[in-house]
Amino acid sequence: MANSTAKTQPRITDLLDPGFMARLDALDLLSRKILQGKLQGQRRSKRRGQSVEFADHRPYVVGDDLRFVDWNIYGRLEQLFLKLFLEEQDLTVHIVMDVSASMDPPASPSSPLFSGKTKDQPADKISSNSKAVFVKKLTAALGYVSLVNNNRVTISSFSSGVQRQLPNMRGRNYLAQMAEFLVTEKFERPTNFDQTCRQLAAGRIGSGIIIILSDFFFKEGYDSGLRRMISPKYDIYAIQILSPDELNPKLTGDLQLLDVEDDDTAEITASSALLKYYQKNLAAYCNELKDFCTRRGATYVLANSAEPVETLVLNYLRLIRLIH
Amino acid sequence: MQWLTPTIALYAASVAIPLLLLMYFLKLKRQQHFVSSTLLWKRAVQDLQVNAPFQKIRRNILLLLQMLAILAVLLALAGPLLSLNTTTADRHVLLIDRSASMKTIENQTTRLELAKKQARNYIESLRSRDVFTFQDTSDQAMIITFDNQAKVMCNFTSDKRQLLAAIDSITPTDAGSSIAQAVTVARAFAQSPGEDNVNLSVSNPAQLVLFSDGQISDAEKITIGPDEMIFNCLGTSADNFALTAMQARRSYENPDELNIFATVANFSDSARTIDIQLALNDQVRAVKSVTVDPLRQDPAIGSDLPGKVSVSFTLNGVESGLLEVRQLKKDSLSADDAAWAVVSPPKRITALLVTKGNPPLETALSSCPLAALDTCLPGEFNAKFNLNSNSGTNDNSNDDSNTDSDDNTYTNSNLNQTDSLPKNYDIIILDKYVPENLPRARYLVFGRPPSDLGVTADELIKNQFIADWRPQHPVLKYVNLNNVFATDSLKYTLPRDAEILAEFNEAPAIVLLRRHGSVFLLVGFDVMESNWPFEPSFVLFCYNAVNFLALEYNQDQQYNLPVSKPVTIENLPPETIARISVPNLPEQEIIIGDSGVLRYSATERAGIYVVEIPDQPPRYFAVNLLNENESNINPQKELTFTGLTLQARDESLSLANLPLWPYLVAFALFIAVLEWLVYIKKVRL
Questions:
Q1: Which of A313, B38, B61, B430 is at 20 to 30 A from B677, Cα to Cα?
Q2: How far apart are CA B440 and CA B426, in angstroms?
Q3: What's the total number of domains in chain B?
Q4: What is the pLDDT of residues A14-39, one digit of tens each?
Q5: Residue B684 and residue A271: Cβ atoms within 8 Å?
Q6: What pLDDT, in 10s, does the model give residues B481-518?
Q7: Are residues B62 and B96 in the same domain?
Q8: Which class for B136: exposed (0-12), middle (13-18), buried (19 or more C-beta within 10 A)?
Q9: Model ipTM?
Q10: Set of chain A residues whose Cβ sits within 8 Å of the Cβ of B60
Q11: Is there a domain that residue B565 lies in?
C-alpha cells in the first residue's frame, strides 16, 4: 500500500534529473540587491543585526545591548563603542509561472501528436518541446536551488489570475510538495496578466526575487502588469519561454490558425513572405519586452523550450548571475 | 487570323471560365492549426498585405495565371490559323509549268525548282484537319503539271504528304508550254468532289494557282474568271542565246551535198557575238562566229522580238550520221543551245506496179521521181516474192482466222521475207489485183482491197462523183477532185481506224489504212472506169501518193521530231524487245506489240534517241526544242487571257495558314508551370 502510494506520489525526480539536481546543489540564487528577508538566513542584509560579519562601530547610547560593546576599544580609548554586524537574512524567491492554455497548445489535426482531442480535451501526449514541460522543469530547478539554499520560496501559477500558490517554502522538506504542485498543474485557462500582477503586487511583502516564466503572449499587453511588479525591493526576472513552433514555424498551405485561449482565428496562406514577416514581428516583440525590462531594471531572458533546461540554468542563468 | 472551330471553344469557355471562377471564389476549406496566440500572425498578415506591391493583383495572381492558361487552351480549341493567304477557297489546283523555259538557271537552281519550292510552301500552308473536331475542315488540293500537255500528278486530296510527293516527282521537260489543256483538266476535276472529300460541295470554286515564268503560248486562247487564278511568276534572268531553227537538207541537184541551216536568236539587251559549232557524229566539222542583234521592241505587235541570224553550213560526201549544231556562248538555259538532225542516206524510191496493163497509171508513175519502176503481171507477183510455197499454208490459216483481227498471216509465215521486201521496193502498186498473201510493204491499191484488211467491198455502186476530200492531207495536196467521176466503184465498209481521204456521195473513195505494219492507200474504183486519168489531179495524186508512202513514212522527217512528238517505227517484228536510249535518262525497254509498231511518246527531252532492235541496225531520232517562245526566258509578270490580264503576285509564297494551337498549348503549359512555381514560392517554408 505504501509502495503504491509512493509510486503515485509525484517526486521531484519526475521533473529533474538526479545528475542535474546534484549540480544544482552547488548553486544558489543571487540577488543583485542586498535584500531584507524575514528570517535570519544565509545572506547579507542591509539590516545590521546579529551576525558574524562586522559592519561598523557606533557610540554607545543608553539602552544598547551590552553584549555588542567592543571592549577592546573601551580598553584603549575608555569610551563605549558598540560593534555593528551585518545581519544575514534569508532570500525571498517568488517564482510566477504561466499556466495559461497558450503554454500548452494542443496538437493540430495534421500533427503526428494529434490524438483526436480538441482544445478542451488536451492531448495525452505532451511533446518534449512543450513550453508546459519546460516551464515546469525550469520552475522545479529554480525552486530546488532556492529550497536547498534555505531561501524562502513562493511558487504561483497564473492564467486569468493567480490560480494556485505554494507560499513560503523553505528547506528541502518542501521538495515533494513543490513536485506535486508542479506535476499536477494544468494549462487550461486564458491569460489575464494584468489581473495576475495586480493580485501578486497586492500580496507582496518584503523584498526578494520575482521570476516570471511565461510566453508573454498577452493580447492586452504586458506593460501594465509588469509595471505593477517592478519595485525597488524586488529583483525582477522575466523569462520568456517560446517553443520551436513559435520561433521557427513550419507551416504550409492555407491554414486557419486557432488561438487556444480565446478561440480567435487568423486565416493565412503560409508563404515565405508571411513567415518572414512573422519572424520579424516576433523579434520586434521580444526586443520590445527586453527593452521594457531593461529600462526598468528587470532582467529579460528568452528561452527556447526545445533546449534542455539544464543548459539554460547552468549556463545562461549563471551568466546573467541569477544563479551563482 | 482564322478560326477553325470557334463554336467548340465558345462552348468550352462557357463551361470552363465560370467553373474556374466559382472554384476560385468558393471559400477555401482551410486546415485548422492551434497556436499559442494569433497575436503575431495577425500582425504578420497585416504587414504582408500592407507591404505587398499590387496587393489586389498579388492576391489573385494565381487566378490570373489560371485564367491565362485556360484562355490559351480555349484559344487552341478554337483552332486559330495564322493566315497570310488572301484566298478563302478550300479547294486548290496547283498548275506547275515544267516547260523548257522552266529549266532556266536562277541562282544555281532552276525555275522549276523555285516553282516546286513555292508550291510546297503553298501546300504546307493549306489548312489541315483540325485536331479538336470531327468535322473535316481541311483544304484540298490537286497538282497538275504542264508543258504542251497537261499531266495530273495528284487528284484532289487533303493528304499533304501525297501532294508534296506529287510536287517532288515533277521533272522538267524540253517541251513548249500550253496552259489550255491544264486549265480544262483542272476545271473538269474541280467539278468532281475528289477522292476523299465528303463534306465539300462541288459548288465551291476551286482556286487555280499557277506557277510559271509566264512564257505560255496559248494564254490568250482561254478565258479565266476574275478571281479564278493566282499567278506566281518565277525567275528574273533574261539573257539567253538559242537555236530557234535548224534543218539539214540534201541538195536537189547533188544528193551528196548536205546543206544545214540554223537560226540563232539573241534574247539579251545587247548585241553578242556567238560561236556556232557544227558537229557530225560528235566530230566538230565547222565553227562559225556570228554577231546577233539584241532584243528589240516591235511596235507593230507590241512585244519583244529577239535578234536573229541565220547560219548555213555545207557538208559534202555525207552518207549518213548525226548532226549537231550548238551555240557555244554560256547562258541561263541550256536546253535550246543545241539542235540535232539525223541524216539518212540519199533515198531513191523503187516501186513495183502489178497490173495487167494500165497505160495511164504507168505514165503517171513514170513521171514520179522514182529510181526504178518495175512492172509485173499479177501472175508473176507470187513468183517474184517467192510466196507460192507459203500461200497454201497461209490460205488454210486464213480460212480459219478472223480477217479483222491481228492474225499471223503477216507476222509469222512471212516474217523472213518481209525483212527483205522493203529493201527491194519502197512501194507496191496493185492495180485491180488482190494477191493471196501480201508481204509487209506500202501499197497503193486500185480496185478491190486485199481481203483481210477488214474492209468489205462486196457491192458496186454506179456513177459516183467525188463529193468531198481532204486537200490538207499530203496525199491530196494540190489535188482537185472536183470533176472526178467513176462509173463503177466499190462501196467500202471500213473499219473504225480507216482514214477517209476522199468520199463519193455514198461511199468512201480514197482510204488510208494501216494493217500489220503495212500501209494501204486504197482507191475504191478502177481508174480506167473513170475520167480521172484525164484530169491533172491524177498525176498529182500519183506523185503525192508515191512520195507520201515512200518518203513521208520512211524518210528523214520521221527521224527528226519536235519535242513531245512520239517516236514511231513501223514494220517491226512483233513480240520483240526494243531498247531506247533517252538523253540523260537510263535506257528503257519496250515490247513491240502484235501490230509491229513501236510508239514511244515520252520524248520530253531534246536530244538524240536511239532505238535498238535485235538483228537490226540502230535507229536514231533527233528530238529538238526549236521553240522561240520557250527560248524567250524573260519572265512575264503579266499574263493576258481572253478578256483578262492577270498580274503576277508581287511576293513569293511563304508559309501561311500556320496552325497556332500547338503554340497556344505550349503557352498554356508554360503558364501552368509558372503558376506552379508561383504557388510553390508562395507556400514554401
A1: B38
A2: 11
A3: 4
A4: 888 888 888 888 777 766 554 544 45
A5: yes
A6: 988 999 989 998 899 889 999 999 888 999 998 887 78
A7: no
A8: middle
A9: 0.79
A10: none
A11: yes
Q: Is residue A169's pLDDT more than 80?
A: yes
C-alpha dist (Å) from residue B498 to B248, B507, B637: 33, 13, 47
pLDDT value at residue B423: 47
Tell me, what's the pLDDT at B416?
35
The alpha-carbon gap from B24 to the nearest alpha carbon of chain A, in Å, equals 13
| B649 & B524 share domain | no
Query: What residues of B are in contact with residue A245 (Cβ under 8 Å)?
Result: 35
With CA atoms as reference, the chain B residue closest to A269 would be: B683
- In angstroms, the CA B143 to CA B93 distance is 6
**Which residue of chain A is at minimal alpha-carbon distance from B31?**
A255
3-state secondary structure B110-122: EHHHHHHHHHHHH
Higher local confidence (pLDDT), B16 or A47: B16
pLDDT of residue A291: 94
Instruction: Spell out which residues of chain B touch residue A278, defining contact as CB-CB under 8 Å.
Output: 40-41, 44
- Identify the pLDDT of residue A290: 93
Residue A6 has pLDDT above 90, yes or no: no
- C-alpha dist (Å) from residue B197 to B152, B159, B192: 18, 11, 9
**Do A281 and B47 make contact, defined as CB atoms within 8 angstroms?**
yes
- From B685's Cα to the closest Cα of chain A, the distance in A is 5
The answer to whether the CB atoms of A110 and B685 lie below 8 A apart is no
Q: Is B685 on the interface with A (CB under 8 A)?
A: yes
Do residue B472 and residue B618 come from a single domain?
Answer: no
Rg (CA), chain A: 24
Measured CA to CA, the distance from residue B17 to residue B8 in angstroms comes to 14
Residues B575, A209: Cα–Cα separation, whole Å: 132
> Which residues neighbour A255 within 8 Å (Cβ) at sequence distance 6 or greater?
A267, A268, A269, A270, B30, B31, B32, B33
- Residue B652 maps to which CATH number? 3.40.50.410
Q: Which domain holds residue B515?
A: 350-395+404-538
Q: What is the pLDDT of residues A183-242, one digit of tens each?
A: 888 888 888 999 999 998 888 777 788 999 999 988 888 999 999 888 888 889 999 999
B58 and B135 part of one domain: no
Chain A residues with CB under 8 Å of B38 CB are 257-259, 264-266
Asked whether residue B476 is domain-assigned, the answer is: yes
Task: Look at A257 and B38 and tell me if their CB atoms are within 8 Å.
Answer: yes
Q: How distant is the alpha carbon of residue B636 from its chain centre?
A: 21
- Is residue B483 situated within a structural domain? yes
Taking the C-alpha atoms of residue A216 and residue A99, their distance in angstroms, rounded to an integer, is: 12
User: Residue B174's pLDDT is what?
Assistant: 87
**pLDDT class for A113, splitting at 50, 70, 90?**
very low
Q: Which domains are present in chain A?
A: 12-19+91-319 (3.40.50.410), 40-89 (no CATH)
Size of chain A in residues? 324
Grid coordinates 505587398 are at which residue? B52
CATH number at residue B609: 2.60.40
Q: For A133-159, what is the HEC assignment?
A: HHHHHHHHHHHHHHHHCCCEEEEEEEC
For B65, list phi and psi in degrees, rounded to 5.
-65, -40
Boundary residue ending a domain (B538, B571, B601): B538
- The chain B residue lying nearest A132, using CA atoms, is B36
Closest CA to B535 of B492, B488, B489, B476: B476
Q: Where does a domain end: B509, B538, B567?
A: B538
Nearest by CB: B41 against A119, A243, A266: A266
B685 closest CB neighbour out of A103, A255, A270: A270
- Indicate whether B440 and B569 sit together in one domain: no
Q: Are B51 and B172 in the same domain?
A: no
- Minimum CA–CA partner of B35 in chain A: A259
Looking at the structure, do residues B59 and B107 belong to the same domain, yes or no? Answer: no
Same domain, B502 and B587: no
pLDDT beneath 50, residues of chain B: 86, 194-198, 200, 388-423, 556, 685
